[in-house]
Specification:
alpha/beta; Rossmann fold; seven-stranded mixed beta sheet; 9 strands; about 30% helix; about 25% strand; Ribosomal RNA small subunit methyltransferase D; SAM-dependent_MTases_sf
Length: about 200
């Protein structure tokens, strides 16, 4: 859990659509954080339109919280934000308070430890936007393979240009993918989703 306090925002984040459309929030100027661009978020949530309402989401490596906040704005029932960097985690908590939302919870902890100790089966959507590092995604896949997951689970992955070379485990299928500049992104669905 994150303690409340005043964060000093150095950069801005705009919520694209939904309940909080057009709201602009500040977040700490941390060189490791790059919010998902508006255009990419718009595309992603167009893909998710049939399933986002009422979804229980996990925003892993939350950073600015852009993906989880957008999900809440568009009708997700709850988002758990996991962010290790203290100022960033604190800022997400302050954003939820500012938006008067009780549908989000912030966990200031290592993403891999969170995956190892938490029950993941309730989640229907997991956002994976780690610092640009392919090894992190491969480690996440290993931890997910060890967990009991919902057959309806969707994974959103955002990374640098090499995402096409990322080895996707055999129990996942690429439902959608796109690119914007140096950003590559894709939506994966569990093969169990097709069978259920």
């Amino acid at each position: 859990m994150v303690k409340k306090g005043k964060s000093r925002g150095g950069r801005r984040l705009r919520i694209v659509a939904g309940e909080w459309r057009g709201r602009t929030l500040s977040f700490p100027d941390n060189p490791g954080i790059r919010p998902t661009p508006d255009r990419v978020r718009e595309t992603l949530f167009n893909w998710l339109q049939p399933t986002i309402s009422g979804a229980l989401c996990l925003d892993l490596f939350a950073g600015s919280g852009a993906l989880g906040l957008e999900a809440l704005s568009r009708g997700a029932s709850h988002v758990d934000f996991v962010e290790f960097e203290q100022k960033s985690a604190q800022a997400i908590g302050e954003h939820l308070e500012l938006l008067k939302s009780d549908r989000g919870e912030v966990f200031r902890e290592d993403a891999f430890i969170f995956l190892e100790k938490r029950e993941l089966s309730p989640y229907s959507l997991i956002f994976l936007d780690p610092p640009f590092n392919r090894d992190m995604l491969e480690k996440v896949f290993i931890l997910l393979e060890r967990s009991e997951l919902s057959p309806k689970l969707q994974l959103y992955i955002e990374t640098e240009q090499g995402v096409d070379e990322l080895e996707i485990p055999s129990d996942w299928v690429v439902a959608r993918k796109g690119k914007a500049g140096q950003v590559r992104y894709m939506l994966l669905e569990s093969k169990g989703r097709e069978e259920s």
